[in-house]
Design brief:
The chain contains eleven helices and eleven strands. By secondary structure, it is of the alpha/beta class. Helix 4 crosses helix 5.
């Protein structure tokens, strides 16, 4: 239930185009909808600006279909993260506009009539190629919610000259998402080079002593560069969502 749909129901009722019982029937699933296995937060877009996002890991294909069936009917943007091909096979028939991206592991649908992406953009930067799946989750998240994204991949500190070749593009971003595993140094480097806020994303990429991303997480949390904020290990979605909100609020 998005602001446009609420406004349409209220205006039709005010103009006499619908009765009170009909309006109440349309609002029946607001502010939440009980699916027994899930409680859909149909008021979320009104509160925070973006609709509820579906985390697919641990959900059966049937449960995901039940959730997305309602979201498709409501006409909102759809973003489902950590989705498998089996998840997509279960829901692809709900709408021809649903898309599955195997790299970011997302199922998406953009709302019809959504305005073009703004001139401002978010730079999503990775230290290595192995960090791309998490970076793509961040990028797809921001793009689903109408933001423009520029991707800069494989420019980590092991060959830092590669970063300098792309620095003008990164410096032009309103927000920078820096994705790195191993020792996780890239966000600190960027924090000392760019004016924009940097959202650091530690990944579980690395050998044994990286402790599945814990080493990168601690490096990022202990960054001496100001203006760097950190999300959880492999949480590309969290970084992309925050970057989208910053870019949107500054527009």
């Amino acid at each position: 239930m998005n602001p446009e749909k609420i406004r349409d129901i209220l205006e039709r009722y005010k103009a006499g185009g619908t009765t009170l019982p009909q309006a109440l029937e349309e609002l029946k699933g607001f502010p939440s909808l009980d699916l027994s296995f899930a409680q859909l937060d149909t008021q979320r877009e009104l509160r925070v600006g973006y609709p509820e996002v579906v985390y697919c890991a641990g959900k059966s294909a049937e449960q995901l279909r039940g959730i997305l069936e309602h979201l498709v009917k409501e006409g909102s943007e759809i973003l489902a993260t950590r989705a498998t091909p089996a998840h997509f096979d279960a829901v692809r028939g709900l709408s021809p506009e649903l898309r599955y991206d195997p790299v970011s592991r997302t199922i998406t649908r953009r709302r019809q009539g959504q305005p073009d992406a703004p001139a401002s953009y978010i730079a999503v930067v990775t230290a290595g190629t192995s960090d791309i799946p998490v970076a793509e989750e961040a990028a797809v998240t921001a793009e689903t919610f109408g933001r423009r994204v520029e991707r800069v991949f494989d420019v980590g500190v092991a060959g830092i000259h590669r970063l300098f070749h792309r620095l003008d593009l990164i410096r032009g971003a309103r927000v920078v998402v820096a994705v790195a595993g191993m020792e996780g140094a890239l966000p600190s480097v960027l924090g000392g080079l760019v004016e924009a806020p940097v959202i650091a994303v530690p990944t579980s990429v690395g050998y044994g002593a990286s402790f599945q991303g814990l080493s990168a997480l601690l490096t990022m949390l202990n960054s001496c560069a100001a203006g760097v904020s950190v999300v959880n290990i492999d949480n590309g979605f969290g970084a992309g969502y925050l970057a989208a909100k910053i870019d949107r609020m500054a527009s």
